[in-house]
Amino acid sequence: MSKPTCNRADLAEWSTRGGPLPLRLAAHLRECPACAERVRRVSEVHAGLMLLKTQTAPPALTARANARALRFLRRAARASRAADRLLRMQPGLNRWQRAQIHVARYSLGAAAALLLLVIRAGTIMGIEKTRALGEQFVDAQWRHIDPDGKSFGPRRLT
After folding, report:
1. In Å, how far from its chain's centre is CA 152?
2. Are 25 and 10 in contact (CB under 8 A)?
3. Per residue in 13-71, pLDDT tens?
4. Cβ neighbours of residue 10 under 8 Å, at least 6 residues apart?
5. Is residue 88 part of a domain?
6. Which domain, by its residues, includes 50?
7. What is the mean pLDDT of residues 119-142?
């Protein structure tokens, strides 16, 4: 169920100016809970505003607020000038300059691919060299253990 609402001109007028309630409005509030709730909320706002009005402001509040507002405006002006400059900027490159940019991009990719191939080849060559040295070491040890090749038979790497 929705609350019944009243469109009373005297309630709207009292809400904007505040002060004591008119007698006719006070009589209406006894019968209309929706208007009474509105008056209660408006009274709370008026009381809060009156409390703020009676308190003293901190020292240099206006100067601090103005300084902060000016900093914000300066930053916004700098940002908008820079953004405007960037939007208006056009590179204006000719075909030769554009081609140089593309060649530089592709050459960087080619250099990376070549570097990977060199690293891979170096790794494979290192493994092969290690294997060859390992075989030489095994041959030397085999000859040391069985110099004639009679006791153990021929060397097998399986």
Report:
1. 72
2. yes
3. 888 877 788 888 888 888 888 888 888 998 888 888 888 888 888 888 889 999 998 89
4. 22, 24, 25
5. no
6. 9-55
7. 89
Across the range 83-95, mean pLDDT stands at 76
DSSP state of 59: T
In a domain? residue 119: yes
- Total residue count of the chain as it appears in this document: 158
Phi-psi region of 64 (alpha: psi -120 to 50; beta: other; left: phi over 0): alpha
In the chain, how many domains are there? 2
Is residue 112 situated within a structural domain? yes
Q: How far are the Cα atoms of 46, 62, 131 from residue 53, in angstroms, in the given order?
A: 10, 16, 92
- Count of beta carbons in the 10 Å neighbourhood of residue 38: 19
